[in-house]
Amino acid sequence: MADHLCSGIPILRSVDRLGVVSHPLLAMVVWGVVSSEIERVIEFFVSRDEAEQMLADVLREEPGWDARFRIERIELGADCLN
Fold first, then answer.
1. For residues 33 and 41, is the Cβ–Cβ distance under 8 A?
2. Interior/surface letters 6-24, b for 16+ CB within 10 angstroms, e for the rest
3. Ramachandran region of residue 19, left (φ > 0), alpha (ψ -120 to 50) or beta?
4. How far apart are alpha carbons 68 and 38 in whole angstroms?
5. Spatial CB neighbours of 10, under 8 Å, sequence gap ≥ 6
6. Euclidean distance between CA atoms 48 and 24, whole angstroms
7. What stretches of 15-82 show up as alpha helix (H) in DSSP?
8. SS3 for 10?
9. pTM across the whole model
10. Which has fewest Cβ within 10 Å: 8, 13, 59, 69?
């Protein structure tokens, strides 16, 4: 079951097997600059534009690093809160 906030971020409500709604869980999308070498997020951003700007700044300084990093959409939700 999902309600929506004004910002467009859905609020997920956990429902048990009897249909009882429990605490609300916030689902959120963030963007990460990921290192391909170590397969880890280097930094998180609230928008893709911010992630792209950071990566562009890094690649301006180190143009040979273009294959080392990528931008990924990361969904944070109920399973991340446990």
1. yes
2. eeeebeeeeeeeeeeeeee
3. left
4. 9
5. 2, 3, 4, 27
6. 26
7. 48-61
8. strand
9. 0.61
10. 8
